[in-house]
Specification:
The protein contains seven helices and ten strands. The protein is α/β, with parallel strands linked by helices. The chain has a single domain, classed as 3-Layer(aba) Sandwich (Rossmann fold). The chain has an eight-stranded mixed beta sheet with strand order 1-8-7-6-2-5-3-4, sandwiched between helices. Helix 1 crosses helix 2. The longest helix has 14 residues. It starts with a helix and ends in a 7-residue tail after the last strand.
């Protein structure tokens, strides 16, 4: 799957202009991005792996992390980066414990990429963000890149992004990657709608591609060692 994912990201659409994060990395040992999704199955694992591999190909030491007790996604992270992926878990560990794991694992790395779990704000209760990707991003002081499924969306994508971007004013949603893009013009329409109405920029789009899907099964994906 890894070589197919790399091929996909070589064909991805990148929006015009540099991504200017309105965020300070001073609280983190190295620059860090949290890759989150609007919901499970949106493509955050594939995109996180692609980003990890792309930065690794640029000669950077990328330290991967996974929110939650998952052991399958980290196997793909390790294959993409050559570094052991560590779990960060707000259900079982407090902020200080997670931060200790994070800081120690980042030693010798240039960049950290944290893959979220479920939807951005989904945790162990409906009344708070406890145990969620959003909580972990705030604990780390890291900006979030939100992955959306943009299939069959145009202006409605702006409403979706606005909701996630404004839901928690203490959370830094720094950019959006649109997955399942039909064409470059499709992404242009979404970018036009978003730029007029939303403060969160579109940073790129991933075209629809069946060959880069990671095989799924009950309760998760196939492990990296189980694939060709």
């Amino acid at each position: 799957m890894l070589h197919r994912a790399v091929a996909c990201y070589e064909k991805c659409y990148v929006t015009k202009g540099p991504l200017a994060f309105q965020h300070s990395f001073h609280s983190m040992p190295i620059p860090t991005l949290v890759i989150a999704g609007t919901h499970s199955g949106v493509g955050k694992t594939s995109i996180a792996i692609g980003l990890m591999r792309a930065f690794t190909h640029q000669g950077l030491q990328v330290q991967p992390f996974k929110v939650g007790p998952d052991f399958i996604d980290p196997s793909h992270h390790q294959r993409a980066t050559g570094r052991v992926s560590h779990n960060l878990d707000g259900w079982m560990l407090n902020q200080a414990q997670n931060r200790q794991i994070f800081d120690q694992a980042c030693q010798g790395a240039d960049l950290a990429i944290v893959e979220g779990v479920m939807g951005l704000f989904d945790g162990y209760g409906a009344e708070s963000e406890s145990g969620s990707t959003a909580e972990m991003a705030k604990w780390l002081g890291a900006p979030v890149i939100l992955v959306i499924n943009a299939r069959s969306l145009a202006r409605s994508a702006a409403a979706l992004i606005s909701g996630y971007g404004n839901f928690d004013p203490d959370l830094a949603v720094a950019g959006v990657i649109c997955n399942q893009i039909g064409s470059a013009s499709h992404l242009d329409r979404i970018c036009s709608a978003v730029s007029q109405t939303v403060r969160v920029p579109i940073v790129g789009g991933i075209p629809r591609s069946k060959p880069v899907r990671i095989p799924e099964r009950h309760l998760g994906l196939w492990r990296a060692t189980e694939e060709e």
